[in-house]
Amino acid sequence: MCGIVGYVGERQALPILLEGLKRLEYRGYDSAGFALQGPVDFEIKRNAGPVDGLVEVSKGLGLTEKEGIAHTRWATHGAPNETNAHPHRAGEIVLVHNGIIENYAEIKERLTASGVKFSSQTDTEVFAQLIEAKRSRLAEDSPGANPETTLIAAMKAAMAEVEGHYAIVLMSRQIPGKLYGIQNGAPLVGSTLKDGALIASDLQAVIPHHNEVSFLPKGEIFIADRDGIHCAGLKVEKIDWTADKVEKGGYESFMLKEIFQQPMVVADTLTGRLPSDPKSPFIWDHQKAHEVLWKNVKRLYLVACGTSAHAAMAAKYFFERWARLDCQVDIASEFRYRDPVFEPGTVVGVISQSGETADTLAALRLANERGVSTFSICNVPNSTIARESSFQYPTKAGPEIGVASTKAFTAQLTVLCALALDVGRLRGIQSARDTEQESFLGLARLPQDLDHILSRSEEFIRIGETLGKQRIILFVGRGTMFPIALEGALKFKELTYLPAEGFAAGELKHGPIAYIDPEVTVITLAPKDEWYQKTVSNLEEIRARGGHLITLGTEGDRVLEGLSDSFIGLPSAAWGTAPILSAIPLQLLAYGCARALDRNIDKPRNLAKSVTVE
Ligand code: AGP
Asked: Among 233, 323, 332, 504, which has the minimal tally of Cβ within 10 Å of its Cβ?
């Protein structure tokens, strides 16, 4: 995710652009830049690091131009540095971009062969060069043609070639006073102001200027100028949000906003990695090294803390079933002190949303010191953990503001599911073809399956509101649902401050069943999987002792409905994606209870977003 701002009108553009970028930093902050339509040429300034750095380097430049575009980046292709920062220039045009051009590599190869020189590793520059190549060719063929007609024709021709979901805003040296762009699956919102036009990736950069906005229609080229935004199918809506609500995109909290971002986040995390043909290999940033690493691995350690450790625990099932790989999961604060055994062929993977967790970083450094190959699954590309691991398999969740992790968790599980599937193929494992194939297809439809579950959010929130008076809430699951039960308990306790415990369903009779009475609610994850019958037996044990049962199962399961006080039926899902989908109702149950108790949803007491202390 990245943040785009564009302005054209009667006021100085730079202050508007920089203020807009500050409001969009939650979408990415590893580098930022702007381009202004100057009297002699474009004035372009780019800076690695957050927007404040760009503000600093812009001071005293005396840039008073009245039209420009700006961008704050969340690196997808190419390191987060000045070279890869937007805007990117190509001849007469300069462009900013949000989203991913999936087929950028083949287009770049073709343009390079035709003599185009690239200065960055980004897909964005490829898009800019493609438009410019088409524009200059059209201009050569029709020297007297109107520059705007030529530019728009070039944009359309380039859009016909690129694949992916994206939004772009650009300016041309030949056509001062105008911005051009399109959204093709990545949002753009704009407003016709009394003195010009403003375009941005999200409402929070527009609302401070005007509460009458337009969500730009997908696939329609727009033109913005002093008189406003011009685009086919444009509708104007009145938004009555406070500034705080704008920050949260209309949601009551960042956490709720991030829960609802999960379909887009999973789509972003899979884009460019999931092959269109189920038989083809997955696509990673370091393909060759990736293949060498996994063809020679003998044992895998997955090391993390908290929610990230729950993702690691679920991945253990993936790697052992699909790749027949010995996979050990360790809590980082234990791993670093237990003098682990590193046999030849050992790989250590660390998982971290923040990329700064002290215990996880110490575990990574221990593995690096012992000469072990390491990789990180991290949500902050240039964090310490990301930079110090041998390989990166980044999630694309974008900055996560809520301290209780939600979208980063499902993004971690998505990467781990894809990685384990791919490692199984690299190791030539055929033993679990059924769950392997259904899980590949499950990944492909995961964003819409997540959307479907989120459409029932109110149902889960309402159930959560009823849990505040129980003596304790137990979360129970088997197999891949066991780590999700642990995650459900962690979400619940860290948001509501109430006692909650997660454990393996098979462990109930080894002690926890002593808890059970009518003041105890047991939330059980019981999809119709290979462990279903065993879990139903556990439910009967709980029922017999008067426990209050909330059960997440496969929709239409009459047996579970009959056994439960509340039954949440979910669509049947692939073995590998069922854990990801089951996390959503648990996030919303915890949210509903915490809100009913008037807890601080985004900043629960005693917690920190990044635990950089031991
Ligand atoms: C997540 O809801 C918790 N706030 C916490 O357990 C977190 O997962 C843990 O501190 C690890 O953080 P990391 O993923 O940034 O390393």
From this structure: 233
